[in-house]
Specification:
The protein starts with a strand and ends with a helix. It contains 19 helices and 21 strands. β3 and β4 (108-116) form a beta hairpin. Among the domains are: 3-75, no CATH class; 92-149 and 483-549, Urease, subunit C, domain 1 (Roll), CATH 2.30.40.10. The chain has helices at 28-31, 34-42, 45-56, 60-75, 169-178, 191-203, 222-235, 247-259, 275-281, 312-319, 328-340, 353-356, 358-362, 367-370, 373-379, 395-417, 437-448, 453-468, 530-549, and strands at residues 3-6, 22-25, 92-99, 108-116, 119-125, 139-141, 145-149, 151-156, 161-162, 165-166, 181-186, 210-216, 239-242, 264-266, 285-287, 344-346, 485-489, 504-508, 511-515, 518-523, 526-529. α7 (222-235) runs parallel beside α8. It is α/β, with parallel strands linked by helices. Strands 3, 4, 5, 6, 7, 17, 20 and 21 form an eight-stranded mixed β-sheet that branches. A seven-stranded parallel β-sheet has the order 8-11-12-13-14-15-16. The protein is globular.
């Protein structure tokens, strides 16, 4: 006679400490029947213990009643109705999903999510009655799916060309949406075009993520810089992006930005200013990592005499040697100061991954069907294209960069442990990184850095919303928030690769099956079938290749 023991989670999917193990001898027929398999599969320990006690008393009728309840609750398969890709509805019900919210907590569910227009109206326990929502016109069945807040890409570029060759906005947008990205912060693009694209996205007249536009401020002196920031305000920018610059010019930029209510993203570079200035002057977020290890050096970096910052091969080769030169004690003080001053950090681990493994970067599996020929050409080594510097990249360079990553990742983790806000962005369109896919890879690298997947999802949702100043509207699945939600086939806490729209292969009962991928992306209440968007991307890529051959 088989013996059965369980310990696991309750109906809401919340782990608990067992009060004891329940073990019983069954008839073979019952032990391996569908009811017992559901209980084993779902880990329904508390409830199964009650069933065990009922079995001891031979309450057969009770057992049957409870079995019917469990089977209906856990294996209920509803039907979607009245849902078309690209539409927004006065009311939409998303049924029977497990939620992984952006607040850094474990999954809960099953729940039903009711959207009204572009707003999350209600999140409630799933109504598993067969007649539930029978009268509703628009219902999306989420059985077996996980609901997450729409991902936010905090470092994006809405490119209209690469190397002077046009690339369609549709290609970028559908890549992002198919990867579950519902919001992007653009930190460098053709602003005349991007302003129009932002308006189209707000209106819902284009299939695109929500756009926040951070325009670059330039100036050769403090007054020119102030004028540049004022011009951004006149044009309707959402924020300001600055690069490396002299201290007096940076101070003018931040003073003017704060007066106008702007948040500021800083790509520091190797300049007079560094992370100390970011803390002192009130930068919102440090992009990449420039300026952080620089601020912890004892003097200048140990550059070779022939080093030329304008030569990108030199610049990125020696960037791979920087972190090891930072003084550990001084670095901790830098990190502590940044946290105390409220400066966030968007490390963009992914954009430099080619530096530690060039072969991997050049052979990503989604390139075959999803890499646009214009982008493929841009990635080739070419001193004229920013980020295309791998014409003399050596094994030694990769070894240095691998060590660089270890120190860098440790610093980001320490920054977070001190209370710092870590964001997630991709900076795709450069250095072999593809839009959308690269944000998911960035999330994997956050896990490599030592963050739990729950915290990684928080980085890409509510943390990014906080960096944008949108924490009361985005980054959560919560009543009253904007309706940005993704439905994923599989639990990304088990495997972040489930977020890739191409999915993963798993072995089930001796057969390889495809799992994962975002199935539905909901942005501002507009419902998009993510696999269809990915097929649209493949069509655009195929058409671009055909045009080259003709």
């Amino acid at each position: 006679m088989p013996k059965f023991s369980v310990v696991g989670v309750d109906l809401a999917g919340v782990p608990h400490r067992p009060t004891g193990m329940c073990s019983f001898r069954f008839s073979n027929r019952f032990a391996y029947g569908p009811f017992s398999q559901v209980l084993v599969k779902r880990g329904m320990c508390r409830y199964f213990e009650e069933v065990c006690r009922m079995m001891q008393k031979k309450w057969i009728v009770g057992i049957l009643a409870i079995s019917v309840f469990f089977l209906s609750a856990m294996d209920l398969k509803g039907e979607s109705k009245g849902v078309e890709s690209g539409q927004r509805y006065d009311e939409l019900v998303i049924r029977n999903v497990v939620v992984i919210d952006g607040k850094g907590t474990p999954p809960r569910g099953p729940v039903d999510i009711i959207l009204k227009g572009n707003t999350i109206h209600l999140v409630q326990s799933a109504d598993l009655r067969p007649e539930a929502y029978r009268e509703n016109l628009h219902v999306l069945d989420g059985s077996g799916l996980y609901a997450l807040p729409g991902l936010i890409n905090i470092h994006a570029h809405i490119h209209d060309n690469r190397g002077g060759v046009p690339i369609p906005f549709e290609y970028l947008y559908k890549l992002w949406l198919s990867c579950g990205i519902t919001t992007v912060r653009d930190v460098g693009s053709n602003y005349d075009k991007t302003i129009q694209e932002r308006q189209k996205s707000q209106e819902g007249s284009v299939v695109a993520p929500r756009i926040f536009l951070y325009m670059t401020a330039w100036g050769r002196n403090p007054e020119e810089m102030k004028q540049s920031v004022r011009e951004i305000k006149r044009l309707g920018g959402d924020g300001v992006k600055i690069f490396g610059m002299d201290q007096d010019i940076m101070e003018a930029a931040l003073t003017q930005a704060h007066e106008l209510g702007f948040r500021v993203a800083h790509h520091v570079g190797v300049e007079e200013t560094d992370a100390w200035d970011d803390a002192a002057l009130g930068v919102t977020s440090i992009e990449h990592w420039y300026g952080v290890p620089d601020a912890a050096l004892q003097g200048s970096q140990n550059f070779a005499h022939e080093y030329n910052y304008s030569n990108e091969s030199d610049r990125f080769r020696y960037a791979g040697r920087l972190w090891r030169e930072a003084d550990p004690d001084k670095l901790k003080l830098v990190l502590r100061t940044l946290v105390d001053k409220g400066v966030s950090w968007c490390p963009t681990f992914v954009i430099y991954e080619a530096n530690r493994d060039l072969l991997r970067a050049k052979n990503q599996p989604w390139f075959k069907d999803c890499l646009h020929s214009t982008l493929e050409k841009y990635f080739e080594p070419n001193p004229s294209n920013h980020g295309s510097y791998h014409w003399d990249w050596t094994t030694t360079d990769e070894v240095f960069w691998r060590k660089n990553y270890k120190i860098w990742m440790k610093a980001v983790r320490e920054f977070a442990n001190m209370g710092g806000i870590v964001g997630a962005g991709e900076d795709a369109g450069y250095i072999y990184m593809l839009y959308g896919f690269s944000l998911i890879r960035e999330m994997e690298l956050h896990q490599e850095a030592g963050f739990h997947p729950i915290d990684v999802i928080k980085h890409a949702t509510s943390n990014n919303a906080q960096i944008l100043g949108q924490e009361k509207a985005l980054g959560r699945i919560r009543n009253g928030y904007l309706a940005d939600i993704i439905l994923v086939d599989g639990n990304p806490l088990k495997n972040l690769k489930y977020l890739y729209p191409t999915g993963v292969m798993e072995l089930e009962q001796g057969k390889l099956v495809k799992k994962g991928g975002t199935k539905w992306t909901i942005k501002d209440g507009y419902v998009y079938h993510a696999p269809t968007l990915l097929e649209d991307v493949k069509t655009l890529v195929s058409q671009a290749k055909d045009s080259l051959q003709n």
